[in-house]
Write a structure and sequence with these properties.
By secondary structure, the protein is α+β, with helices and mostly antiparallel strands. Helices cover 20% and strands 31% of the residues. It has seven helices and 14 strands. The strands form two sheets. A ten-stranded antiparallel beta sheet has the order 4-5-6-7-8-9-14-13-12-11, sandwiched between helices. A four-stranded mixed beta sheet has the order 1-3-10-2, with helices on one face. Strand 7 and strand 8 form a beta hairpin. The longest helix has 12 residues. It starts with 15 loop residues before the first helix and ends with a helix. 33% of the residues are buried.
Length: 314
């Protein structure tokens, strides 16, 4: 049976929580005029009957079968039809909405463009113009900033708002100096990266957000590394939230990429790696943690080496 999809990216009204997360993530970074790092996402609505079947199937799951999957990475499929069928059979799209992800046609951003984009927080440190941003929508608008240190080894500043919520921000010449400022909910080791790749000084950022009562809300880390011959680069983004990630399950059509596969590290963490036209995306998503890498001119072997030596724990 052939299912007909209607492209509704322009008129679709996403659930409020999904809209809020998308908006908050966009605000966290300056948006270049032409963003070459982003993938192309098409939103489809499942026919109502199929959606109802999916809901019914979900409700009939036994307690033993309804175990939450640890990893929520995009699901690789061969076609839009397969994405629709997978969503209907799994019951993961009770809203009747599925997202299909594919590459855009732009060439990779240049290393200079990436450096300019990733240094925006360090360059603004004493100006205080870039205090807004966050990965949780309720905590992306801020009122004031107090610079605590401007030492290039480890800069720190307190960003706050009237209700008492705080965001402690950090940048550094060496991104490894940021690790001790994170909470430990997600840990990783940059020693091997610093030996085999060149970190870009000050092209990094970390922050930890607490609510008005001092409770943990979220944390974020980013860094930019280049190959030692500058023939390629890797931009790393790692985040964690106290609240569950309830974004819509996405599907990736493997044939739309030059390479698309899952890789599991020796410690058991699953990553989805996709490559197209010199660009590389590497993602690992769980209920609370997101690891998102974007790179250029890196091989599968190089990516796997990096993932193995980062020694993630979360």
């Amino acid at each position: 049976m052939k299912h007909h999809f209607k492209h509704i990216a322009d008129e679709l009204k996403l659930p409020q929580q999904s809209r809020e997360r998308i908006r908050a993530q966009l605000i966290a970074h300056p948006i270049p005029q032409e963003d070459k790092t982003m993938k192309k996402t098409t939103i489809f609505r499942m026919p109502l009957i199929a959606a109802a079947i999916a809901v019914a199937m979900a409700l009939t799951l036994t307690a033993a079968a309804a175990v939450t999957q640890i990893f929520r990475n995009d699901i690789l499929v061969s076609s839009e039809e397969d994405a629709f069928n997978a969503a209907a059979n799994s019951g993961t799209s009770e809203s009747g909405i599925i997202a299909i992800v594919g590459p855009n046609d732009n060439p990779p951003s240049s290393l200079d463009e990436m450096i300019e984009s990733n240094r925006f927080k360090s360059d603004d440190w004493n100006l205080g113009k870039s205090i807004n941003g966050g990965i949780v929508y309720e905590y992306h608008q801020w009122d004031s900033v107090e610079v605590l240190s401007n030492d290039a080894k480890l800069r720190s500043r307190r960003v706050s708002r009237a209700d008492g919520a705080e965001k402690m921000e950090y940048t550094a010449e060496n991104p490894a100096n940021l690790l001790n400022q994170l909470t430990g909910r997600i840990s990783f080791d940059l020693s091997w990266m610093n030996e085999h790749y060149d970190y870009i000084p000050d092209a990094n950022m970390a922050f930890v957000v607490t609510d008005p009562q001092g409770n943990y809300v979220s944390e974020y880390f980013s860094a930019l590394y280049a190959k030692q011959d500058e023939s390629g680069y890797l931009s790393m983004e790692i985040s964690n939230t106290a609240q569950l990630d309830d974004t819509t399950q996405a599907y990736t059509i493997d044939s739309s990429y030059d390479t698309a596969y899952y890789y599991t590290t020796p410690s058991g963490y699953e990553f989805l790696t996709t490559m197209s036209n010199g660009k590389v995306w590497v993602n690992c998503v769980t209920e609370h943690t997101r690891i998102m890498f974007y790179g250029a001119y890196l091989t599968s072997a190089e990516i796997e080496d990096i993932l193995d030596h980062l020694s993630f724990s979360f």
